[in-house]
Amino acid sequence: MANLQYWQWRGHRIAYRSAGELSNPDLPGLVLIHGFGASSGHWRKNIPVLSEKGRIFAIDLLGFGNSAKPLPSPDLPYTFETWGQMVVDFCQEIVKTPVTLAGNSIGAIVAMQAAHFAPDRVRQTILLNCSLRQLHISKQQYLPWYRVVGARLIQQLLTFRPFAQVFFDQIRQPRALKNILQQAYGQKEAITPELIEMLLQPARDPHAVDVFVAFVRYSGGPTPEDLLQTLPCPAYLLWGIADPWEPIDLARRWQAFPCVKEFMPIEGAGHCPQDELPDVVNPLLAKLALGN
Predict the structure, then answer these.
(1) In this prediction, what percent of the chain has a pLDDT beyond 70?
(2) Are 236 and 150 spatial neighbours (Cβ–Cβ below 8 Å)?
(3) pTM for the structure as a whole
(4) Is residue 202 within 8 Å of residue 66, measured between CB atoms?
(5) How many other β-carbons are positioned within 10 Å of the β-carbon of residue 201?
(6) What domains lie within the chain, and their CATH numbers?
(7) Which of 53, 175, 203, 227 is deepest in the core (most CB within 10 A)?
């Protein structure tokens, strides 16, 4: 896997990986954006293959992976607008050419937000099991009452720092994380000790709990439907059929948006198809983003 590099953004250190003939601007650029709780390492099975055909970058969003985890503030909240602007600036300062953005889960929403901010820099987006944001404030009326009450109760309890710390300490245990992955992954054999340690290592940062709380309590910002409605570039949707968190039947409705050029179900994959079935996903990413 490509080694970590660092870039300064608004006074904070941001980690990223890059591979391929980076000095050749004629080669297509692809920026990979991870999901919640993950990092650029979640693309470790994709970067080496894709770098044979283009310039590949994978970034650790602010608050995740090896990037800085500052305390949330009004000037720098953990929102899709913050991450979207960060990706735009990364593309401008590091990649330096128009790119394709590919994101998994919340990373897909970040990709679309970046495309809205800088349509001249984003050629297209590839959305892998995009977060449906079912707990968004505008969607809660369509959920069963017990889900809404439960979510709001957890959000309120997490404002109490000692409770938040105990809660976070429980879910960042190896056994608890493995259980979560067992739910999310359709391909159970992809849940390896390497994957678990990769996800746990950033969670040991003293401020990781603050990032977690800030995002869990975040019910505003854009919905994917908002962004798709006016997305200024093409979108390609890849979806693991076995995803229990982001049901494919809800996502299929998005094919009605004019920006959606293709919807590709991935048999046997769950929430993270790029990590579960890289031999299936890598050719699709290469074809869509790199032209071969």
Answers:
(1) 88
(2) no
(3) 0.93
(4) yes
(5) 14
(6) 4-134+222-290 (3.40.50.1820)
(7) 227
Spatial distance between the Cα atoms of 47 and 55, rounded to a whole number of angstroms: 10
Q: DSSP secondary structure string, the chain?
A: -PPEEEEEETTEEEEEEEES-TT-TTS-EEEEE--TT--GGGGTTTHHHHTTTSEEEEE--TTSTTS--PPPBTTB-SSHHHHHHHHHHHIIIII-S-EEEEEETHHHHHHHHHHHH-TTTEEEEEEES----TTSTTTGGGS-HHHHHHHHHHHHHTTSHHHHHHHHHHHTSHHHHHHHHHHH-S-GGG--HHHHHHHHHHHTSTTHHHHHHHHHT---S--HHHHHHT-SS-EEEEEETT-SSS-HHHHGGGGGSTTEEEEEEETT--S-HHHH-HHHHHHHHHHHHH--
pLDDT of residue 272: 97
Q: Nearest-5° angle of CA 66, CA 58, CA 98? A: 135
Q: With the CA atoms of 224, 93, 261 and 20 taken in that order, what torsion angle do they form, in degrees rounded to the nearest 10?
A: -120
29 alpha carbon, distance to own chain's centre:
18
Dump pLDDT digits (tens) for 177-231: 999 999 999 999 999 999 999 999 999 998 898 888 887 766 678 899 999 999 9
Nearest to 128 by CA among 4, 11, 20, 280: 280
At 199, list the tokens. 């996800």
The per-residue pLDDT for range 65-77, each reduced to its tens digit, is 999 999 999 899 9
Question: What whole-number distance in Å separates Cα of residue 3 and Cα of residue 283?
Answer: 23
